[in-house]
User: Which sequence fits this backbone?
């Protein structure tokens, strides 16, 4: 019922009048493009420049989002949900973004990727408890998610010995982001489900605008606001990288929201997990790193999980009576039934004893 009332589009490309596989391909392509660029930019800023200001960078990214949405012509007058709908969602979104970016100061990218790759499992579990969803998934989808997660962890751990960078603080930060992600996708799906008129642009605009004030307390508490401002002022080209990253991530974010609206939070989480595997594989192909047997095992499990997810659901239809329905009565049959009924009454009158 959820995707039938609202016509969906992605950057002017109509989705509603296309078959499901084309919808999935278009949304996934936008997501892959946006977040592949995002990964490259994050690797450059955090590892090459050694700038680890997750909260501040998320704050800058939010302003870029709002500006891009303004250029698209969206205004608050076009909203179909009240502002209070986005308060909880915005707090979770900004917390997740800030903790994810900030954890890169304590974890290397493969280590963070290993933790974030497990997101699909808590998303599926949490969907059963979110009001308005109460999702229940068939067993093969849980098995698919487990194969995908285990495969990606195996692939990631195969490279962990080359550049280990683990920290208790980093693990706590990325674990907090993981819990928030489990709520985030399901809350977004619940809003799309309960009010199908909600657009992806409204969702991103409101959650960003409402969520940005939540970033100020941690920036002030940690002193990151002033430190990041001072560091970026000495290297102003960093802002160029951040704006470029935000523009690419904007495409990815709108594509993700389209996936959630059309296919649900769990399917979207599996797509984001598969994207992490593609990112790692590309890094090996581009930089010609050697692939070991453990890499091959991980890729095999990931492929099995994706194939299992693509299998159609074999839901048994409700049992119906096998007896064929009675043929409709035509006018002559109705008249003959009335005649037989009338004759029966007359015969009963004749056989009644006289008093």
Assistant:
């Amino acid at each position: 019922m959820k995707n039938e009332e609202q016509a969906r589009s992605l950057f002017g490309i109509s989705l509603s009048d296309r078959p499901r596989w084309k919808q999935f391909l278009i949304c996934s392509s936008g997501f892959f493009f946006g977040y592949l660029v995002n990964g490259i930019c994050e690797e450059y800023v955090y590892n090459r420049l050694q700038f680890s200001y997750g909260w501040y960078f998320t704050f800058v990214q939010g302003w870029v989002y709002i500006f891009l949405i303004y250029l698209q012509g969206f205004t608050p007058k076009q909203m179909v949900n009240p502002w209070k709908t986005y308060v909880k969602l915005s707090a979770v979104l900004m917390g997740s973004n800030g903790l994810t970016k900030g954890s890169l100061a304590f974890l290397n990218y493969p280590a963070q990727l290993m933790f974030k790759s497990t997101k699909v499992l808590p998303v599926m579990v949490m969907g059963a408890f979110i009001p308005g969803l109460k999702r229940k998934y068939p067993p093969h989808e849980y098995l698919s998610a487990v194969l995908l997660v285990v495969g990606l962890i195996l692939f990631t751990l195969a490279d962990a010995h080359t550049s280990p960078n683990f920290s208790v603080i980093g693990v706590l930060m990325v674990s907090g982001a993981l819990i928030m992600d489990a709520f985030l996708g399901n809350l977004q799906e619940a809003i799309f489900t309960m009010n199908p008129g909600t657009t992806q642009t409204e969702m991103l605009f409101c959650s960003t605008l409402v969520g940005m004030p939540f970033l100020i307390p941690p920036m002030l508490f940690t002193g990151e606001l002033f430190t990041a401002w001072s560091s970026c002022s000495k290297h102003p080209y960093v802002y160029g990288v951040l704006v470029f990253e935000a523009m690419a991530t904007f495409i990815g974010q709108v594509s993700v929201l389209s996936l959630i609206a059309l296919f649900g939070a769990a399917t979207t989480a599996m797509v984001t997990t598969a994207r992490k595997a593609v990112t790692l594989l590309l890094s090996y192909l581009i930089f010609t790193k050697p692939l070991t047997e453990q890499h091959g095992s991980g890729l095999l499990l990931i492929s099995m999980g994706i194939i299992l997810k693509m299998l159609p659901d074999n839901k048994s239809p409700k049992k119906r009576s096998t007896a064929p329905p009675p043929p409709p009565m035509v006018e002559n049959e109705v008249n003959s039934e009335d005649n037989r009924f009338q004759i029966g009454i007359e015969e009963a009158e004749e056989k009644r004893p006289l008093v």
In short: Residues 20-48 form the longest helix (29 residues). The radius of gyration is 28 Å. The longest strand covers residues 9-10. Strands lie at 9-10, 13-14.
